[in-house]
């Protein structure tokens, strides 16, 4: 049986990206980062094989490709507040015009241009 253990994001500035993702997800370094690699874990994760997906940041030296082939979906009960918080941490709004009328997600990019969606999981009001 397979499970997702770590999602790896390519970055150019590992310090900046690490600071963003630690603050965004409230994750912690699994161990001391190197110059080109760090794994970030949920704070409750006590070993590499414990439940909970990790994020690794890897400096590879090649540029990002658009559109990206993989992205993260971050679930938020208060989407508006989380988007404001992430923008304050350094996320960027993505100029993307393909939202359907009933979209429950907003596309952002981290400090390295890696795209992610903030999905509204809060209760829907009746229209």
From TrEMBL:
<feature type="domain" description="VOC">
    <location>
        <begin position="3"/>
        <end position="121"/>
    </location>
</feature>
<dbReference type="InterPro" id="IPR029068">
    <property type="entry name" value="Glyas_Bleomycin-R_OHBP_Dase"/>
</dbReference>
<dbReference type="Pfam" id="PF18029">
    <property type="entry name" value="Glyoxalase_6"/>
</dbReference>
<dbReference type="InterPro" id="IPR041581">
    <property type="entry name" value="Glyoxalase_6"/>
</dbReference>
<protein>
    <submittedName>
        <fullName>VOC family protein</fullName>
    </submittedName>
</protein>
<dbReference type="InterPro" id="IPR037523">
    <property type="entry name" value="VOC_core"/>
</dbReference>
